[in-house]
Write a structure and sequence with these properties.
The protein is mainly beta and about 280 residues long. About 5% of the residues lie in helices and about 50% in strands. The chain starts with about 45 loop residues before the first strand and ends with a strand.
Length: about 280
């Protein structure tokens, strides 16, 4: 198998973290967990890895915690993949256009502190809000390579179960800032939009939730809810072993920013992983 380097496409999914990136929803994310660029899926490759992610306990929390990050990514030469970060799907390229479709999982949110091994977010500050159930999601992604230094991407998260959790869209640009034999540094900027169901699930407070939690009742409408900036640095120790470091920053906006459950409108994220590809 050919060594295939992990690349970052979208920032992590936050409050509804998937097995990939961490935002309520691409949110994986998804610690900041990088994914394979579609244009690199030209040979069969297996990547294994592990490390740690640091992110808010939920989107809007003023407390952060560390969680375990695991990577298992098997990409076939024909475009099919099975991945702990991307789900199960197919991706390919047509000239400067790349595309993929995957079945993945959007993790839930608990109304108490989630331990470091849990894929769900959560905090004791949400007592009375009830748990948000995780859901299977369809993740179509479309990208376009404008130039060697600029890639555009559009990704959707469409719930297939727990459909009332809502749909999210992510609009991103990525740019390789530096590339050498041992180092690669990539910048990613992403805007995140949610339907009214999505926004109410992760940022709204219903009448019953208000009575149980003490938070003021709040109706969150559809719209942009967050902007993310991430910088990934991959350092190749050997042709097979790599260290992947990600530093990120999330700024909540719109109805998400004004939600009564939001204690901090902006927050840093980060991850450190070691990967082996063969």
């Amino acid at each position: 198998m050919r060594n295939t380097e992990l690349r970052h496409t979208f920032p992590p999914l936050r409050s509804g973290r998937s097995l990939k990136k961490i935002v309520p929803g691409v949110a994986l994310a998804l610690l900041a967990t990088p994914t394979l660029a579609a244009e690199q899926q030209q040979a069969t490759a297996l990547t294994l890895g592990g490390g740690v992610n640091v992110a808010p306990r939920y989107s809007g929390s003023d407390k952060s915690h560390a969680t375990t990050a695991l990577v298992l990514d098997y990409s076939m030469a024909n475009g099919f993949f099975i991945s702990s970060t991307r789900g199960i799907g197919y991706g390919n390229t047509l000239g400067k256009l790349n595309f993929s479709a995957a079945l993945s999982y959007r993790a839930g949110r608990k109304d108490h502190n989630a331990d470091s091994g849990s894929v769900s977010s959560g905090s004791d500050e949400l007592r009375g809000m009830g748990d948000v159930k995780g859901s299977a999601i369809g993740v179509p992604t479309l990208g376009y390579k404008v130039a060697d230094w600029l890639n555009l991407q559009l990704q959707a998260e469409v719930p297939l179960s727990e459909r009332s959790n809502g749909t999210a869209l992510h609009f991103g640009i990525t740019s390789p800032l530096y590339t050498s034999a041992k180092n690669s540094v990539t910048l990613a900027l992403t805007g995140n939009w949610g339907t009214s169901q999505y926004m109410q699930t992760y940022y709204g407070v219903s009448a019953s939730q208000s009575a149980a939690s003490g938070f003021a009742q709040y109706d969150a409408g559809s719209g942009m809810y967050a902007y993310d900036m991430n910088i990934d640095w991959t350092y190749k120790l050997t042709p097979d072993w790599s260290i992947v470091t990600t530093a990120g920053y999330t700024q909540l906006t719109g109805d998400a920013r004004n939600s009564p459950i939001v204690q901090r409108k902006s927050s840093p994220t980060g991850s450190l992983m070691v990967t082996y590809s063969f």
